[in-house]
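ok trying this again, last paste got cut off
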Amino acid sequence: MTSLTDQLDFGARLSVAARCEASISKLQMPENQDNLLLIDARGQAVLMHQQQPLSQTVADWPAGHVRLAVLDGMGGHGQGREAAEAVAQALLQVPACHTLQQLGQQLDALHHRLQQQFRQLHDADSFRRPGTTLTLLEIPADSAPLLYHVGDSRLYEISADAARPLTVDHVPATAYAMHGLLDEQQWWQQVHGEHRPQITQAYILGNAFDNPQVLDDGLHALDQASLPAFLQHLPDRRALTLRSDALYLLATDGFWSCARPDLWVARWPELLARPGQPVAAALEALYHDYRQHPPPALHIDNLSAILLRPHVAHHGNIDETALPQAAKPHD
């Protein structure tokens, strides 16, 4: 499959490749409820519509500004694909943001608008409201990249030595750790060492961090004040420092939905961080290896990924300027 970025131009600062597939299996081809959005340095955009790539032009997009996002619609609540599509399409209307405050305000407001839209389409029962993950990088031309994260899709930093997660999954284990019920080793085992598909927060759906028995309409942005000490360096909304000697992978959870995801992810540096390998070839190597050597006890799921390499280090900082039983989402 051709990279979705073949017709896009991210300027001299970034190389980017992206793919979005329903499945690696020829026997199991579920509906692709994933989506992604790429807006390049000229305002040319690609997203998924009805499971096919759609190209658009964003009016008045500032030169050199880039937006990248992956989304995983929640099929367990119906209309997961439609929810992810609605967010990806609406992100085209969100103006380019240059500060964390601006980005948070814009995307929180969009969350509430779409929540009302989907409520009108169905009813007032929040347990049936659809949702989607949203992990987004906003990369202004002249300042640090900005992260906005909701759900259990992830951003990884991949160097020759390690694949390091830069986001915290919004899952029951994280809620337990926030309340002091899990230590670092227990949290890591449940989140990165096992396959647990339940999540505690999703875009459009809302969150159950404060009370697992009540689904709140708003989003709970995890920050240094709410996260346990061992996760305080990974708030959901922060400026990032991107290394020029590393790759960055935005991906949905189909890539680690297996019995031992930590062992599978440990293969990524060898696959992706080969000296001189173009990002498109690196992304192809990831999909090829997944298809030819799938991890044991694989759960077939949609696979969406955006891989980027900064050619100049982007400097920032990391200071921060379980759903009700009947409503556990599966994405």
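PB: full thing came through this time. Confidence is low (pLDDT under 50) at residues 317-331.
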